[in-house]
Specification:
Blueprint: H1 12-44, H2 49-74, H3 77-85, H4 89-114, H5 117-123, H6 128-141, H7 144-160, H8 165-187, H9 196-220, H10 238-259, H11 261-269, H12 274-311, H13 314-341, H14 343-350, H15 356-388, H16 393-417, H17 422-456
């Protein structure tokens, strides 16, 4: 790392070729991460419907806490990427250590939430039986939260230096390990006693410990030894931690606002009957399965945007935006065609629907679901772009206004004042998503214009306020 890494290619086609090999491993890793939660739910379902209901709620609490922490820790990615781009190994080490401290601190606070899962669920009206089951699971899973966030910090480092594959291989290996450990600790195997839902949660913690140990070993050996992490100072730096917390908190809030919108919308859907609720649940699951893959390209966008910013290269930022638009439209439109063409398989085989009324409602809803998938994919990728520029506050406000004011308000009006009914709520979701996409696209354009104008003035080291902390700011680390 004595020399800067090669410049980002400025041609649109070249940028697509840079996004794909960086984004695909990350996308596969996110899918594997989701598979671990699905494995837990599948195993626990064998214990009975009460246990499945309790663990489903426990995973909801865990996911919300984890997503907020993930957002905070993700703020370290552009700092790591900028340090690597400038061949500043000291900055990379410093930011990585501060990200680890942040992961531990946020993880411990999150554990306090998880260890009170039962009280939280009882407070919002869940039955004591279900709340107790959820409490048992999260008591086993709680320690896994800071471990997972430490993995996120390592993944941010590997992404920031353009080498995401090691973290992906580790996460893929964790899926069958979680299945084996989860089965053994939940039901018992040989000398290992069955611990029920607590065992399922404990298995996820042990798997996350394996993930952290494996990634740490990879960072300290082989080609990654050039990072010199063995020589890193382990002391916390409060100003740097404060900077990461300030930027990352907005990311965490934005993720919660976006990810929580459709589940909360289910309360309004419930007024239209059981068929509408079932159709909404299927739409929500499809959206989750499809858009999780886009998170990989969002992570790639964060790194490439941070590299381009470090170079002061507005053309690279412009072409990155075009590449993300091309990939996002191609990916989401292609999957939308598949979903619409296989709607019968989705309803009858994948989700096991046999009720004609529910099946009919799902078929009518699918065109709206795929329209939202396209919009949400573009939003997800563009948000990664803005994270790479440390622009987090305004995008969070845009998401809040777009979904919770424009989307929800439009959906309620259409569902109540027009014959659209339940479908009006999803039209509101699409409307809010389109508003967010327009706002985010304009925001990316403004960044490009700021850097372009700065370069024209010949002040390559100027720090426009819109970009937030940092061009060459890592050298103060």
């Amino acid at each position: 790392m004595t020399e800067p890494v090669p410049k980002v290619q400025n041609s649109g086609r070249g940028m697509v070729r840079r996004v794909l090999p960086l984004g695909l491993p990350l996308a596969i890793g996110f899918v594997a991460q989701l598979a671990i939660s699905f494995t837990d739910a599948a195993l626990v379902s064998r214990l009975g419907p009460d246990e499945l209901a309790g663990v489903t709620l426990a995973l909801s609490v865990f996911s919300a806490t984890m997503l907020f922490g993930l957002g905070i820790v993700t703020a370290v990615t552009p700092r790591l990427a900028a340090g690597y781009r400038a061949a500043d190994t000291g900055a990379v080490r410093t930011w990585f250590v501060q990200g680890a401290w942040l992961a531990v601190l946020v993880g411990i606070l999150g554990m306090a939430v998880l260890l009170n899962t039962g009280n939280i669920l009882t407070f919002i009206g869940q039955s004591p039986r279900t709340a107790d089951i959820a409490q048992d699971y999260n008591e086993g899973a709680a320690v896994g939260l800071p471990l997972f966030l430490l993995y996120v910090d390592a993944r941010c480092l590997l992404t920031g230096i353009g080498r995401p594959r090691p973290s992906t291989w580790v996460m893929l290996a964790a899926v069958p390990l979680n299945l084996a450990l989860g089965y053994a600790l939940t039901f018992g195997a040989g000398p290992i006693p069955g611990l029920g839902v607590f065992g399922a949660g404990l298995a996820s913690t042990l798997v996350r410990a394996f993930i952290v140990l494996a990634v740490t070993a990879l960072l300290l050996t082989g080609r990654l030894r050039e990072l010199g992490l063995r020589n890193a100072s382990l002391a916390p730096r409060l100003p740097l931690l404060g900077e990461l917390l300030r930027v990352g908190s907005w990311i965490g809030v934005r993720i919660l606002l976006g990810e929580g919108f459709l589940p909360v919308l289910a309360f309004f859907v419930g007024r239209f009957g059981a068929d509408a609720t079932a159709a909404h649940a299927i739409g929500l699951r499809l959206e989750t399965l499809v858009v999780v893959f886009a998170l990989g390209f969002s992570g790639a966008a964060t790194t490439l945007a941070a590299w381009a910013r470090e170079d002061g290269d507005w053309r690279a930022l412009r072409d990155l935006r075009s590449a993300l638009l091309t990939i996002g439209l191609g990916y989401s439109a292609g999957l939308s065609v598949v979903i619409l063409a296989t709607s019968g398989f989705i309803t009858r085989v994948l989700f096991g629907l046999r009720d004609p009324g529910t099946e009919s409602m799902v078929h009518k809803l699918l065109p709206l679901v795929v329209a939202y998938l396209i919009v949400d994919t573009l939003i997800t990728m563009s948000m990664g772009y803005l994270v790479g520029l440390s622009d987090t506050r305004i995008p969070t406000i845009v998401v809040g206004v777009g979904y919770w004011i424009i989307g929800l308000g439009t959906g309620i009006l259409l569902s109540e004042l027009t014959p659209l009914g339940f479908y009006g709520l999803w039209l509101g979701v699409i409307t809010g998503g389109c508003g967010i996409w327009i706002g985010v696209f304009a925001r990316t354009g403004r960044h490009i214009a700021v850097i372009k104008n700065t370069r024209k003035k010949g002040d390559a080291h100027a720090e426009p306020e819109i970009l937030g902390p940092g061009r060459h700011g890592h050298r103060n680390a």
